[in-house]
Amino acid sequence: AISEPERGAHPKYLKTVAHEEGNGYVLSGEKYYLTNGPIADLFLVAAITGVKGSRKQFTVFIVPKGTTGLLLTEPMKLSFLRPSPHGGIVLRDCAVPSANILGKKGSAYADIIIPFGELEVILSMGPIVGGMKKELELLVNAIREQRIRANDELKNGLGELKYLADTLDIMAYEAANMLDSDTSHPELYSVPLCSRNMAIRFQSQLDVIMSQANIKSDMELSLLANDLDHLVNMGKNTVVIKQRKLGESVLSGKAYNNESA
Fold first, then answer.
1. Where is pLDDT greater, at 187 or 151?
2. Any idea what the Cα angle at residue 215 is, between residues 211 and 219, rounded to 5°?
């Protein structure tokens, strides 16, 4: 639970706070866009516990569902990823013991939030590639069932979908292996940026093929394409910032790292 309504997840704008009181802390604030929030049993809440210079210090607290002062908002009405409901929480003088601190007090941004973000973007490549491969399978089934004539244009389009999916599959495996290794890989930060553009190209080409060949989409393909369209287009502003930071690192000769984003 990091993101907040109208503020997103940028540390500069987050306002949820935790004040020390007795043998614990009292949390106040609001979080939203929590994946599986409506069905979660506990929440990991990032809250401000201090300020050092101009930087806010964050601590992550384990807050079980049912804790006094923790309120669940109505599930968000999203047109995608419906099997995984999204929602929010409101914290109103929500008291938790000090034992519920996850990690070290005041260092959650560098120790938890940034590493989690890195893991999230790399590991999400797997489900996205899996979805793309399923889309291709459903598309080929539709072509056969609807007896669509496979002209050169259609073959070229399918060939592009195939090489994009295969290349992203290899990238996902290699990126995961790099995460697991004990060696630093600065180039790893480029992989999500590249894979995102390739995934967007895949979805765009899928639409073009279906339109040009007049292929009728079934419910399964329509829902899957809708989910992936939203997934690969999420966080456009963040991607632009990271790409610019990557360019700045090239000019400066210094290695790019996720914390600089």
1. 151
2. 110
DSSP string, 26-93: EEEEEEEEEETGGG-SEEEEEEEEEEETTEEEEEEEEEETT-TTEEEPPPP--SS-TTS-EEEEEEEE
The verdict on 61 and 184 lying in the same domain is: no
Question: Which residues are identified as catalytic?
Answer: 120
pLDDT tens digits along 3-19:
999 888 889 999 999 99
Place of tokens 């490549």: 125
> Residue 47 sits in which domain range?
17-108
Q: Are residues 132 and 93 in the same domain?
A: no
Residue 259: the pLDDT is 53
Q: Is residue 191 part of a domain?
A: yes
Are 134 and 103 members of one domain?
A: no
